Amino acid sequence: MTSVDLTDSGDIKASNLNLPFEDNSFDVVISSGVVHHTPDAKKSVMELKRIVKPKGLLYLLIYRKPSIHYIERITSGALIRKIHEISKQFTDKVLVRLFIPIIYLGRVIVYKTFKQANYQNYKNYFYDRFITPRATFHTKKEVENWLRDFEQIDYYKGNLGYHHNFVYRKP
């Protein structure tokens, strides 16, 4: 077994590409929004498969290709990341503040609520959507191929079709 780094809170810090758990360790494994930020999404999924017990469940949320988010990432997102490289202050002081009304409007449309999040929530959303240095997008067929030896229990697209949401059972 590989070494495990325990933080003060008792949480385990490890790479999703080399998880510090024995094969067949967990009845349920949940990976929500992680795999698409790793250097190798397929290898990350293989690690998740490895640690699920037989008859156990794997929930996987991964960025969807094609999607509006994918198009944003390769168009306006590329420009925003270039601007961010030049001036992080400009990103924080101008771009984030410009996008907050757009993000808020999107929340109203999707969640049908006028409840507002705080500034830090909006900033985090903006950074995850546009600034994060690594984000990969995958087709449904591609992910199904990675998990072809598992039984697909459920599949649905996430909000606005940005994500694939899979539930699989290990044989």
What does this structure look like?
The protein has 171 residues and is α+β, with helices and mostly antiparallel strands. It has 2 domains: 92 residues, Rossmann fold (3-Layer(aba) Sandwich), CATH 3.40.50.150; 64 residues, no CATH class. It is built from 6 helices and 6 strands. The model has no long low-confidence stretch (mean pLDDT 90).
Average pLDDT confidence is 90
Structural class: alpha+beta
Low-confidence stretches: none
Percent in helix: 40-55%
- The CATH topology annotation of the largest domain reads as Rossmann fold
Succession of helices and strands: EEEHEHHHHHEE
Question: Given the C-alpha coordinates, what overall shape results?
Answer: globular
CATH hierarchy, class of the largest domain? Alpha Beta
Total strands: 6
Superfamily (CATH H level) name of the largest domain: Vaccinia Virus protein VP39
What gyration radius follows from the Cα positions, in whole Å? 18 Å
Give the name of the CATH architecture of the largest domain: 3-Layer(aba) Sandwich
How many helices in DSSP terms?
6
Number of folding domains?
A: 2
Q: Major sheet: size, sense and barrel closure?
A: 4 strands, mixed
